[in-house]
Amino acid sequence: MPQKPSNGLRALSLFSGGGGLDLGFDRAGFRHMASFDILPETAAVLKAARPDWEVHAGDNGDVTRIDWKSYRSKIDVLHGGPPCQPFSHAGGRRGAADVRDMIPEFGRAVLAIEPKAFILENVPGLATKKFAPYVKEMILDRLGSRYQIQMLVLEAADFGVPQRRKRVFFVGFRNRAVAKRYKVPSPTHARDLGAGEGLPVVMGARQALGLPDIGLDGLVPTLRSGLTGPRHSTSVVNSATAMRQWEELQIWPNGVAPDRDAASRFAAKNGTFRLSIPDCLLLQGFPADWPIKPPVYKALGLIGNSVAPPMAYAVACSVADVLAGG
Ligand SMILES: C[S@@+](CC[C@H](N)C(=O)[O-])C[C@H]1O[C@@H](n2cnc3c(N)ncnc32)[C@H](O)[C@@H]1O
After folding, report:
1. H or E, element range at 127
2. Of these four, 27, 110, 152, 320, which has the most CB atoms within 10 Å of its CB?
3. Is 70 exceeded by the pLDDT of residue 226?
């Protein structure tokens, strides 16, 4: 994610969490206007990473309490990944019946602020047939009267992340001509040798972590979010199949350590490599020193809920390309 020069566009972040989308937009050259999240940890992470950013966290970051009018005409791009529980298997897939459903709040902000573009991210479950009526009502119809909206399903590995991780993005533009010019981000990496013409092959997880060659490497399964599996877990595994894939790579994904020193002091099963928070950051596409800190279960919640920054960067660049020209 090479840092792009300022593109003159102002970005507002809702549901900022550990800052995956925020980092992608930052590196893409957007000017950060403010971040909002109900978690106090968001302030600790984002203020450590970017001391000059305006961050509203905890009660002050609760989007349900914000009157967005003061941001009207001051924002070019509004982005956010509302909680995914209402649309994920782990969360019970209750959609609008789930009180955690914040997509209506995202829509309220878009309608009040009227940015040139919005980007709404979520789990691919939102793009399934079950939620087609919900998507039509809450996104396409509600925001479609003012915005031209496209839905993209992207895979993080296609943007160089050593993990299989699909996410859905709704990208809306207020201006019809701009929307017509918009181009979905093209992969920057191929998944297999010879697959993408001229593209570098995405690194395997072992190579990304700097581990010795064992004659085998590959993508890790989707890191679990803080919502799957037991609460306060220090594991990133969310299924038996995923566990087998981690074992094949000789990486131990349970009992994640706070840092590499701690991981090396606490041998993992069968001599496999024990993960630590910086390793999980790398597997999610963050820099290893992005300031998501222990306790481990909270750090893994922030990492597992984040948009992989290189994927966020690709989307942010695609939107900047078309807005800058219009
Ligand atoms: C999927 S995570 C977002 C991750 C973020 N987009 C990233 O890339 O790192 C959803 C976030 O919504 C936040 N959230 C839930 N309810 C909220 C509310 N009422 N106001 C503000 N944030 C809320 C959660 O704390 C969580 O951090």
Report:
1. none
2. 110
3. no
Give the span between the Cα atoms of 159 and 184, in whole angstroms: 13
CA of 98 to the centre of ligand 1 (A): 15
- 174 and 232, same structural domain? no
Least confident piece of the model among 181-195, 246-260, 282-296: 181-195
Rg of the Cα trace of the chain?
Answer: 19
The residue whose C-alpha atom lies closest to atom 18 belonging to ligand 1 is 62
In a domain, 2, yes or no: no
Query: Would you say residue 53 has pLDDT above 90?
Result: yes
229, 318: one domain: no
Residues 150 and 46 in one domain: yes
Q: What is the pLDDT of residues 201-218, one digit of tens each?
A: 999 999 999 999 999 999
Does 13 sit in the ligand 1 pocket, CB within 6 Å? no
In this structure, the answer to whether residues 138 and 277 fall within a common structural domain is no
**Ligand 1 centroid to 88 CA: how many Å?**
15
The 3-class secondary structure across 146-170, one letter per residue, is: CCEEEEEEEEHHHHCCCECCEEEEE
User: Is position 272 within any domain?
Assistant: yes
C-alpha of residue 126 to centroid of ligand 1, in Å: 16
34 inside domain: yes
Q: Is 301 in the pocket of ligand 1 (CB under 6 A)?
A: no
Rounded to whole angstroms, the Cα distance separating 325 from 180 reads: 12
CA-nearest residue, atom 27 of ligand 1:
17
Domain count, the chain: 2
CATH of the domain at 60: 3.40.50.150
Domain that holds residue 279: 205-304
pLDDT, one tens digit per residue, over 228-252 is 666 788 999 988 999 999 999 999 9
Contact call for residues 86 and 19 (beta carbons, < 8 A)? no
Catalytic residues, by residue number, are 84
Which pLDDT belongs to residue 270?
Answer: 79
